[in-house]
Amino acid sequence: MDFNDKNHAPRRVSTATRAMAAGIGLMIANAGSAAATPPLSAQDRAALNARTAAAQPSSALIKALELMAPAANQQADGPASRASAEAALAALRALPSLPEFSAFDRAWIAFETAAALQVLGRDDEARSAYRSALDLPKTKVQYRRTLMALHALGDPQRPGRCPAGGWQTPPEASAPAYPPPAELRGIEGWVDVLADVHENGSVANLTTVSSSLAIFEPAAAQWMSSLRYRSADGAEPGRPCFAEHRVTFRMRNAALVQFPIEMVVADPAYSFRSIGAARAAAAVQAR
Q1: What mean pLDDT is reported for the chain?
Q2: Which among 185, 209, 223, 284 is placed 20 to 30 Å from 138, CA to CA?
Q3: Which residue in 96, 140, 139, 92 sits closest to 112, CA to CA?
Q4: How far apart are CA 265 and CA 261, in angstroms?
């Protein structure tokens, strides 16, 4: 069972929160007020003042687990990473079931418990935990990432992550079409897309994981649908798989850029490694 309602990501949100972090401000929505720039339609104005936010745990779960800024997600494998996974696993398993937790929270807990077990090399337990997570209501992204994890754990019946490689673009579409309302106003951006890839490398079922602005999402999906995935040696994948890709929109003329892509802050990616740096540090000291 999957869900995709307004209470769970991907979800459309105002850029107000993002604007505070990125310094763009609500000027994006009003950028078409200059006399030399065509006025915005109501649809374009809405798309320039909204974005798709990646799924995040609820505030109740963040508080319960003392989730911190996800810089720790970038830890390399090693003693510190194992200590983080052990501390996270203990915290997740001790977590009470609170009524404030959403369906997404419960799926997140199950998935991150399985991920911690996988990092610790407890593969049998990880497989069982991932399979249990499949029975929970979840987003399309959670579902696909669970299948990828099961494939990596030796379940060939599940489609996994595509082999290392890249995207082959047709000559007539070497780059996505730039949305005119954004281009005329010097706005750059990005869209994170998760796609199903067929045996021959063609793509389907494109899902927006997150975006800097909604105005870029249709162009990103249209462009991605024309691509073909190829492995590092140029071959077709040969099996169904999943691939994630960030489609970027950059102005060719840097002098016309008003809101560069570097101003846009990506969503935090909370994972089990985000569970209290203090807990991980304490676990390292106790070893």
Answers
A1: 81
A2: 223
A3: 92
A4: 9
For tokens 């810089």, name the residue: 71
The DSSP string of 6-63 is TTSSSEEEESHHHHHHHS-TTHHHHGGGSTTSPPPPHHHHHHTTEEEEPP---HHHHH
DSSP, collapsed to helix, strand or coil, labels residue 233 as coil
Ordered DSSP codes for 118-174: HHTT-HHHHHHHHHHHTTS-B-HHHHHHHHHHHHHTT-TTS-EEPPSEEEEPPGGGS
Name 283's Cβ contacts closer than 8 Å, sequence gap at least 6.
Answer: 83, 84, 86, 87
Domains of the chain as residue ranges with CATH:
165-263 (3.30.2420.10)
Token pair in block for residue 233: 């040696």
Using DSSP bridges, classify how beta strands 11-14 and 165-168 pair: parallel, antiparallel or unpaired.
unpaired
- Torsion sign over Cα 149, 154, 159, 161: positive
Provide the 10 A C-beta neighbour count for residue 251: 18
pLDDT for the residue numbered 1: 39
254 token code pair: 């840097």
**Three-class SS of residue 2?**
strand
**Quick check: pTM over 0.90?**
no
Residue 171, pLDDT > 60, answer yes
